[in-house]
Specification:
With 219 residues, the protein is mainly alpha-helical. It has helices at 2-12, 15-21, 25-45, 56-74, 83-101, 104-107, 111-131, 143-171, 181-205, 213-216.
């Protein structure tokens, strides 16, 4: 009983824990994954002009892998289920897929820039949502160090993403991609900036509310 009470108090003292403990959090994560799968079913079975050259067949297994990341990492090591991290991990892949599916990338030149920024805000926030649910690992780090850690993770992630896109473009896998040097540099800059903002939001709103304010201050 005491262990359960301690665990419950620990969960509720973080922003991520409070969201995870709320009603419907797990259903929200499941709905996000179902929507991603449905979007790819349409993308891979319906011939749409706006998907030409977007490498959707190559993206499918990689994007669906996002739905398994949090469950595999969690493995019932703590309760409740880290639904906030799960939603935030899957959301960028769903947004990117929907953007391609409805032709936003072709209709509006700014779509790629906007979504790269938003998606990296979400991904880095997901990192913090997970980190703050792990007992003891988050409290030992200052807010400034936590922000730098998240921003660094975001920067590494966009480098990896651009390398993957370059491989697709060079090999022609899944139909290939039409990439330019300007696209790559712009994506690196915007995603890094998005990751910096996402890290600040994650530390500020998903972190431990029980520590002194100075410990989570980024200033």
């Amino acid at each position: 009983m005491t262990g359960w009470l301690y665990s419950s108090v620990g969960v509720m003292r973080t922003g991520a824990g409070r969201l995870d403990a709320s009603r419907g959090s797990v259903w929200a994560a499941m709905a996000m994954k179902a929507a991603l799968l449905l979007a790819f079913v349409v993308a891979l079975t319906v011939p749409l002009d706006q998907l030409e050259g977007k490498g959707m067949a190559f993206r499918f297994p990689l994007f669906m892998l996002s739905a398994a990341i949090v469950p595999l990492a969690w493995r019932r090591r703590f309760q409740p289920y880290p639904a906030t991290a799960d939603v935030l991990v899957v959301a960028p892949f769903l947004l990117d897929t929907l953007g391609n599916l409805v032709g936003l990338y072709d209709a509006y030149d700014a779509t790629d820039d906007v979504l790269h920024t938003i998606n990296w805000i979400l991904l880095v926030a997901a990192f913090h949502a997970w980190r703050f649910r792990r007992d003891g690992s988050a409290a030992a780090m200052s807010g400034r160090d936590a922000w730098l850690l998240g921003a660094g993770i975001g920067a590494l992630a966009i480098v990896g993403w651009e390398i993957a896109e370059w491989i697709v473009a060079e090999t022609g896998a899944g139909g290939g991609l039409a990439l330019t040097y300007g696209d790559t540099v712009g994506d690196l800059a915007l995603s890094t900036a998005g990751g910096m903002l996402g890290s600040w939001l994650g530390v500020r709103y998903l972190g431990d509310f029980s520590v002194p304010s100075g410990a989570t201050d980024l200033g």
